[in-house]
From TrEMBL:
Cofactor dependence: pyridoxal 5'-phosphate
Pfam families attached to this UniProt entry: Orn_Arg_deC_N
Single annotated GO MF: ornithine decarboxylase activity
Family: Belongs to the Orn/Lys/Arg decarboxylase class-II family.
Organism expressing this protein natively: Dasania phycosphaerae
Domain Orn/DAP/Arg decarboxylase 2 N-terminal: 29-261
Phylogenetic classification of the source organism: Bacteria, Pseudomonadati, Pseudomonadota, Gammaproteobacteria, Cellvibrionales
One record GO biological process: putrescine biosynthetic process from arginine, via ornithine
The name this protein goes by in its record: ornithine decarboxylase
Amino acid sequence: MSNRYRDTAQLIQQAAPLESFYCLSTEALARQAKRFLEGFPGVIAYAVKANPTPELVKELAASGVGAYDVASIAEIALVRGIMPEANLLYDNPVKARYEIEQAYNEYAVRSFCFDDELEFEKLRSVIGDDSNVELTLRFKIPTNNAKYDLSAKFGADEEEAIRLLQKVQAAGYRCGLTFHPGSQCAKTGSYSEYIVTAASIVKRSGVAIETLNVGGGFPSRYIGEQLPNLEEFFATIGQSFNEHFDSRSCTLVCEPGRALVDSSISLLTRVKHRRADNTVFLNDGIYGGFMEQLFSPIVHPVRVFRNGEEHSGNEQPFTVWGPTCDSLDKFAHQPLLPADVAEGDWIEFGLMGGYGSSTATEFNGFTSNRYVYVEKGFPYKAETLM
């Protein structure tokens, strides 16, 4: 990714791209990294799964992010290659034995997550009696204030968590607790509920933990969503943590993904075809950068370009299809676009940094993984970045 442009308009004027392109603003990324590093009362561990683009990870490292939530050997290798001294948290609760061996022996990972006894025994069989290793137990509670509930797949309930935490202590490992309130969490109180439960687990188990990891879930403010700002989440988490834990002996950690990188990246697409019934076909879609449209009608901010200049006009809702031959390749909502939008126009979607290129496929031979640098990123309204 060596091409650099002043802004999206210059990209179109100079390159007239035929394929879709992600536009990365390092200035916007550094600004959001600073917001987390200075605002969150603990350690920031970037959730690499949200966007593993090497150039983005390099920029985060340069901005001062020194810890990373990794879910696979590929993500571990990526971060180690960029920042050898990074603190890696292998927080995928289920891992193959060879993955544990490779992470521990080849990449010197010393923090592993688990949520059941069989995974604990698997970890123990590989790690042995290394007391420098931290095993972080993931737990869950019956609450859901998020767009995507992640507790159906992972997390021990409170009673099981008590028993498993005691096993970690008895085995001589460093102990930690972690949870995830769900992606796009809408209520600050969800974190408080989890922290209160974490304190109960610690008290009832009699086990002192060295780390409390509150996971990710910090939301992006897509169009039409009424959400607390990040600082409200930080304040609530910090207050609840201080009420129930001693920061001198327990480290607070979070794992932001989309909220850290979303605003720094936009996706520039092009209209392949326009029908009279307000239907457009784009050169990117569900199997590319818009996978989340399958599950939720996320409304991204948009702007349209024509002949290298921003184009506006009376807006109307449009049905949007992606480029593949599959009928699933359709937006879950109808974006508002200028009524005269036409073949050859470019449509730029903002807030595309998280779970865009990272979840894209090559179905039908279409790809969504091309990046360029732009100095000036997408011009968000102030309320979008609150």
